[in-house]
């Protein structure tokens, strides 16, 4: 099933794996077309393949009130046709040319991706540019796709108590900020979405000056520029709204939610704190938090696993995650699942003890060195293939960072000190800003 | 979120094949002084090595009362070996930012190593230890046992896992193919260290070993490393007989659960990997339910919006072939979705495919094949897969021709022979409206 998923539960996975993946020094080239489209090329002639990706600086958190899910619904409907590429043909044309395509929506961005042999770059660029401005929708086309989205929502959440709890936890964490709303939308609001809702969102946000084109692989920057000018360059700039989301008030009281479900056999618990992201709040804490998440939760030698699973024999697994790639604010979390018949109260207490240890003593130089090694190696592993570069760069450029930030990644990791990690921990691990979510077996009542 | 379940693709050298069929793919056959063979794609553009291997024998050979044995061994080989205890072993891997993993499947036991090439000597030494001298200390054994039991327990109420398990039982009955790889709680509790040591002695052997390597290592060096890593293993394996399973019988089985979306797993007898019509069946499956643009996707998702995803694939065992698939839909719509499924099954069996759609499918299959290989790891995985299926070292060069040679008449013939809606074994987990169990 979907791997790059950015909605719902997968957020934490993305946050954790993103840590290692975004490590590359990709040596990209960039320029901006007259109409405002930023173009990035990551040349890699290892094989005659290109990955063509178009990122819009708009996501679920930019939706109008009452229209939750419209960003994602539009992403689906982007395959429903233009005058020159009729409904359903986009993916078929890509496939018949030996390529494959995909798309994804998050709180902060929406992206479209095609992988093709390098001699098909022009074809996919023409089609992607075409649907930036020529999308035609009707309610007849939108209706079955709304059914698809409802089934997608059911598939992600209806049978998954942990996904349901994740949605509720987000909704409880944020009082006002739209991060409280699931990317896919609330069911009732999805039911009400129309073709016109999607088109209104499209006209408001889909413009060259609100997008980033990233091409990685066997194409030179000159060639990409020539094609981008030809296809995207013809699309006029349009005014787009500034990304100003409702501000979130400070959290004054610790929160706790508990969910019971007959589909749960093994209890689990997570504690989440709102945190700075790479782009918002006290951003100096971001890299230290990334390292802290690895020290606490990066694998079987990390603190939480060692303490909860090995020493105390209380949990089957324990981890930590830092979601730093968010435009307005990040999250830091620790979590663990019990053993069969296990005691979740004790597990929660152990998680808190480990947080207390960090607050009191910080991290050791050895731990910090271990995590730095893992992340710096991640920067090398990220160059093994074409998928990491567009993802890291696209995510950065749509969430308030620059190419220079992506390229400086190893150096910023290297610069983190144990003192900085302790500072970051003290800034984030504040009890009143925590949200504890517990999942238990039992009747939902 | 992804609207479609597909993986990203990347790049590499082998890709030359698809784009320019004349170009040769450079797979080197490497033989160690001790006689161990590996296939290698050397590529120095990134200082990384992907190393994968497979032994014959997997969970299907777990002894009676010890289901889950192969799986438990796979979780414990890197939990202490030689002079290193569990944490010592993991710390040694951390120090060089390398990873070692094992994966027990039905009929194979897979392993992998990924390392930066600068640390390869230490990485290969750790892999050698894990294979030749696993410790099975009490602490990791009991911890892993607890984790596996927790996993088994949490799977008992997971609709997708219930559907998968139930389908396997419905299809294969008491045959080892029906056995859950993780085992049952009772069996996992009964597995002793001596059982695991016997597994290592009898299964992790040089006979039948398959190795695929890609990345920053020369053939000459690899030859020596192969003996370092595998040379200490016993030459040949213990007995490994698995009988033919009975053919999959059709029928509908419902597992009633009060959940909002029914999960459906379906399948029937399909081609074995060595079936002379395998490529015709492969194309047939692609058009029926395998591709993003398949008929099932068109009818069930695109036209009617009944599902987020529906798909089928050919799942081949040593002694059986199946064509299986799944979908998930609201309880009220399961009947409609199953009618459409059977309808497409029937239409394919009756009419086969048209020339145009076959040609488009070939272009996709041949064009996208090289795009799947996005890293040294995925190249190494493919090198292992080609050897496991005994397709020959020139397979990558031949594959396009094998696909292109399939005619619409071939597809019609194989569809007629294989597909039959009455033979579909269907499992529904959920609360589907208007449907009853027939077997």
User: Helix coverage percent of residues of chain A?
Assistant: 40-55%
Query: Which range does the strand content of chain A fall in?
Result: 15-25%
Globally, the shape of chain A reads: globular
Radius of gyration of chain B: 23 Å
What is the total number of structural domains of chain A?
Answer: 2
Shape of chain B: globular
CATH superfamily of the largest domain in chain B: Metalloenzyme, LuxS/M16 peptidase-like
Q: What summary fits the major beta sheet of chain A? A: 6 strands, mixed
Q: Superfamily at the CATH H level of the largest domain in chain A? A: Metalloenzyme, LuxS/M16 peptidase-like
CATH topology of the largest domain in chain B: Cytochrome Bc1 Complex, Chain A, domain 1
CATH C-level name of the largest domain in chain A: Alpha Beta
Helix-residue proportion of chain B: 40-55%
* CATH top-level class of the largest domain in chain B: Alpha Beta
Mean pLDDT of chain A: 92
Low-confidence stretches of chain A: 1-23
CATH architectural type of the largest domain in chain B:
2-Layer Sandwich
> How many domains would you count in the coordinates of chain B?
2
How does CATH name the architecture of the largest domain in chain A? Answer: 2-Layer Sandwich
Q: How many H/I helices of chain A?
A: 17
The topology string of helices and strands of chain B comes to: HEEEHHEEHHHHHEHEEHHEEHHHHHE
């Amino acid at each position: 099933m979907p791997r790059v998923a950015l909605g719902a539960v997968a957020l934490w996975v993305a946050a954790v794996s993103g840590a290692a993946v975004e490590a590359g020094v990709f040596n990209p080239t960039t320029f901006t077309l007259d109409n405002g489209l930023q173009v990035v090329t990551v040349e890699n002639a290892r094989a005659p393949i290109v990955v063509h990706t178009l990122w819009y600086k708009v996501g679920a958190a930019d939706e109008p009130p009452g229209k939750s899910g419209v960003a994602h619904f539009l992403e689906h409907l982007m395959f429903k046709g233009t005058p020159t590429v009729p409904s359903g043909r986009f993916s078929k044309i890509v496939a018949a040319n030996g390529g494959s395509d995909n798309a994804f929506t998050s709180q902060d961005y929406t992206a479209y991706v095609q992988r093709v042999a390098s001699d098909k770059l022009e074809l996919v660029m023409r089609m992607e540019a075409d649907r930036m401005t020529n999308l035609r929708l009707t309610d007849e086309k939108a209706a079955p796709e709304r059914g698809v989205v409802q089934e997608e929502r059911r598939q992600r959440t209806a049978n998954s108590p942990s996904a349901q709890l994740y949605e509720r936890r987000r909704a409880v964490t944020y009082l006002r900020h739209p991060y409280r709303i699931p990317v896919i939308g609330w069911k009732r609001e999805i039911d009400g979405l129309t073709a016109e809702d999607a088109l209104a969102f499209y006209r408001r946000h889909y413009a060259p000056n609100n997008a980033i084109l990233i091409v990685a692989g066997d194409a030179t920057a000159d060639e990409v520029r020539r094609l981008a000018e030809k296809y995207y360059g013809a699309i006029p700039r349009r005014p787009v709204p500034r990304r100003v989301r409702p501000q979130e008030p400070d959290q004054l009281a610790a929160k706790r939610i508990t969910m019971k479900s007959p589909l749960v056999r093994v209890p689990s618990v997570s504690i989440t704190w709102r945190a700075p992201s790479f782009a918002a709040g006290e951003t100096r804490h971001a890299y230290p938090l990334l390292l802290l998440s690895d020290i606490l939760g990066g694998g079987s030698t990390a603190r939480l696993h060692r303490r909860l699973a090995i020493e105390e024999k209380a949990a089957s697994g324990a981890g930590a995650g830092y979601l730093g790639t968010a435009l307005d604010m990040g999250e830091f979390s620790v979590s663990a699942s019990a053993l069969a018949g296990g005691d979740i109260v004790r597990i929660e207490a152990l998680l808190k003890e480990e947080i207390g240890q960090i607050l009191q003593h910080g991290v050791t130089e050895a731990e910090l060195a271990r995590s730095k090694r893992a992340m710096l190696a991640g920067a090398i592993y990220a160059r093994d293939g074409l998928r990491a570069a567009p993802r890291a760069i696209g995510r950065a450029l749509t969430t308030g960072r620059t190419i220079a930030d992506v390229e400086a990644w190893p150096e910023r990791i290297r610069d983190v000190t144990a003192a900085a990690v302790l500072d970051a921990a003290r800034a984030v691990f504040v009890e009143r800003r925590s949200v504890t979510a517990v999942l238990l077996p039992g009747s939902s009542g | 979120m992804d609207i479609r379940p597909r993986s990203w693709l990347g790049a590499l050298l082998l890709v030359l094949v698809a784009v320019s069929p004349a170009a040769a793919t450079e797979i080197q056959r490497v033989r160690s002084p001790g006689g161990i063979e590996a296939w290698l794609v050397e590529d120095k553009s990134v200082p990384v090595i992907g190393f994968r291997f497979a032994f014959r024998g997997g969970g299907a050979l777990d002894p009676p009362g010890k289901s889950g044995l192969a799986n438990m061994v796979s979780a414990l080989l890197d939990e202490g070996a030689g002079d290193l205890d569990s944490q010592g072993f993991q710390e040694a891997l951390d120090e060089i930012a390398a990873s070692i993993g094992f994966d027990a499947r039905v009929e194979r036991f897979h392993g992998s190593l990924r390392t930066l090439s600068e640390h390869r000597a230490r990485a290969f030494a750790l892999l050698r230890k894990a294979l030749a001298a696993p410790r099975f200390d009490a602490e990791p054994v009991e911890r892993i046992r607890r984790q596996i039991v927790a996993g088994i327990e949490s799977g008992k109420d997971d609709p997708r896992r219930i559907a998968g398990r139930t389908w396997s039982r419905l299809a294969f009955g008491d045959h080892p193919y029906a056995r859950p790889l993780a085992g049952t709680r009772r069996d996992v509790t009964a597995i002793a260290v001596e059982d695991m040591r016997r597994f290592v002695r009898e299964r992790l052997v040089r006979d039948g070993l398959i190795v695929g390597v890609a990345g920053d290592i020369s053939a000459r060096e690899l030859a020596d490393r192969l003996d370092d890593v595998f040379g200490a293993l016993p030459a040949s394996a213990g007995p490994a007989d698995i009988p033919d399973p009975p053919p999959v019988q059709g029928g509908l089985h419902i597992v009633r659960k009060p959940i909002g979306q029914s999960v459906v797993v379906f399948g029937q007898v399909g081609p074995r990997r060595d079936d002379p019509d395998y490529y015709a069946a492969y194309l047939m499956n692609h058009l029926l339910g395998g591709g993003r643009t398949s008929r099932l996707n068109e009818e069930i998702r695109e036209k009617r919006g009944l599902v987020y995803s529906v798909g089928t694939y050919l799942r081949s065992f040593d002694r059986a072939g199946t064509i299986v698939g799944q979908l998930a839909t609201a309880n009220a719509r399961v009947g409609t979705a199953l009618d459409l499924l059977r309808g497409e099954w029937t239409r394919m069996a009756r009419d086969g495919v048209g020339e145009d759609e076959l040609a488009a499918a070939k272009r996709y299959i041949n064009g996208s094949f090289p795009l799947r290989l996005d890293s040294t790891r995925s190249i190494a995985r493919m090198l292992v897969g080609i050897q496991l299926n005994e397709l020959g070292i020139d397979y990558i060069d031949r594959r396009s021709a094998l696909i292109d040679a399939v005619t619409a008449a071939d597809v019609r013939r194989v569809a007629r022979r294989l597909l039959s809606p009455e033979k579909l074994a269907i499992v529904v987990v959920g609360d589907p409206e208007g449907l009853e169990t027939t077997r």
